[in-house]
Amino acid sequence: MDKQHFDQLVKGVKAMKRHIAGKPVRGVRVTELPAPDVRTIREAAKISQSQFARLIGVNLRTLQNWEQRRTQPTGPARALLKIVALNPKAIEALHD
């Protein structure tokens, strides 16, 4: 590997480190997705907070924090909420 390629590689690694740290990186545009409206999703499924929390596998307090927008769901919970938002009856598949 010649010096030019090595320097480009080092530059890329440094940019990746800045990106992971949440700092702006030239040429990278991060679009924030809006947080799901958890209360509206749960109400469309016609289910209580405690039942909904149990079915999606989170603590009741966590669900309440999401509904009051003190915190936001992430990862698999966010994906599951999107599924339930698109099809409120999907929550029935989670019943024991």
Counting H and I runs of at least 4 residues, what is the number of helices?
A: 5
**How much strand content do the residues show?**
under 5%
Q: What is the CATH topology assignment of one domain? A: 434 Repressor (Amino-terminal Domain)
Instruction: Please count the beta strands (DSSP E, at least 2 residues each).
Output: 0
Mean pLDDT: 89
CATH architecture of one domain: Orthogonal Bundle
State the CATH class of one domain.
Answer: Mainly Alpha
Main beta-sheet strand count, sense and barrel state: none
Distance between the termini: 58 Å
Could you say which structural class the secondary elements and strand pairing correspond to? Answer: mainly alpha
Structural features:
96 residues; mainly alpha; 434 Repressor (Amino-terminal Domain); 5 helices; elongated
Describe this structure in words.
This protein is an all-alpha fold and 96 residues long. The chain contains five helices and no strands. α3 packs across α4. The longest helix is centred in the N-terminal third of the chain and has 18 residues. The N and C termini lie far apart (58 Å). The model has no long low-confidence stretch (mean pLDDT 89).
